[in-house]
Amino acid sequence: MAVASQHAAVRNAATIRSLSDVSATHIKAARVENPEAFGNAKRTIIVFATWASVFIYLGFAFWYFDFARMFAPSDNAQRLLAVMFRWEDMANWQYANIYRGIAETLAMAFLGTFLASLVALIVGFLAARNVVRFPLFRHTVRRILDVFRGVDQLVWALVFVRAVGLGPLAGVLAIFISDIGTLSKLYSEAIENIDRKQVEGVKATGAGPVRTIRFGILPQVLPVFLSQSLYFLESNTRSATILGIVGAGGIGMIIIERFRATLYDQVVFVVINVLVLVAVIDWISKKIRMQFIGETGH
Q: What per-residue confidence (pLDDT) applies to 118?
């Protein structure tokens, strides 16, 4: 009876001429009819509890990692910064070794990315839902890619250093295996998002599976493949620097040698050269994308 009377009050709301005509019964009935308009206490509590948990966790993380030390004066940090930017005895810095290491790093990144892109071009089709109709086979391929992608490139480098020894070959293999997993996934997703009309049009001409892929799918996805591979080349140039630190060749080995010898000024010099190299690769990649894809870049 009470609910019925509340509904009746709502139906009579049109008779309200001014605020003085609004009674507690009207408000109660309106709350029943439109609970979301007056706020949901349970939802408010959940939101508040979620934000409170986030802030408590952040506070604990700052306390656990002792972030206050970042703002404490440190003689070691000041001394390190001073040494890094006071370059001395530059005539004896063995520039040939440094630039040979940078060239080796670039070669590692290029070869690893290039080989991974070639393999991913095939594996991406095998992992695409709209190309391979056998779920068991497709899911098997995807799980193998998960393994390649799930293990960090640095771990792969440690594995291959143990398997093939110190040197750039271990770095190339680490980039190759890791990028197969990632690029194949990206390629398969690009294939799954193509326009089906073009594929159906090619099939309507009587084309077989190979010609359908060649003329129906590849023209749509190749620009995406190229753009992603170029980005990975740039990213792998930076990663190859780290791989060298664990013995996988390249400029990373020179950086870790200089660190151990406390030649921090030379470390800064090498890092600046790597940054310039990455910037040049980014610029060249942008030009290539504009030439072949028409992308304006960023």
A: 94
